């Protein structure tokens, strides 16, 4: 009886460990910038990707998604809008979200795979400095997160640090300015009296 009890105890421990791991599994989101260097005045894009979208239930259907963007830091960006991936209909304006898409019927893992793009976000750099760009979803709003047919919405959460640099002064401008300074210095020289 004692070996059977140990076996049952080990099976229960393994099952509870598996369930605990499944409960904390979540899709992974990433943000990818279209340009490695961003200067003041530049317009650029950020692609929002999801990996392992169906990690909790490979048989479920994805019906849509929704999220907002947040910006912080010393630099400043202007959010210009989003382009939703063609897998989804764009419902961003209808839901007052920065990016939202809907698909009916939904998509399953066999149709779109476990990793795909949700949207492309468009920005313009306004001032130089570090900027933290984050996307997030409020799961209290049923239109936010990854929206599935059978399971609860999955939170969307990702961030990206960006460095916006000032526009360098072109070489020709430096030469012109140094020439003006030289002319100013020559014109201020005292005149010799003979």
Automatic annotation (TrEMBL):
<keyword id="KW-1133">Transmembrane helix</keyword>
<protein>
    <recommendedName>
        <fullName>Secreted protein</fullName>
    </recommendedName>
</protein>
<keyword id="KW-0472">Membrane</keyword>
<keyword id="KW-0732">Signal</keyword>
<feature type="signal peptide">
    <location>
        <begin position="1"/>
        <end position="22"/>
    </location>
</feature>
<feature type="transmembrane region" description="Helical">
    <location>
        <begin position="167"/>
        <end position="186"/>
    </location>
</feature>
<keyword id="KW-0812">Transmembrane</keyword>
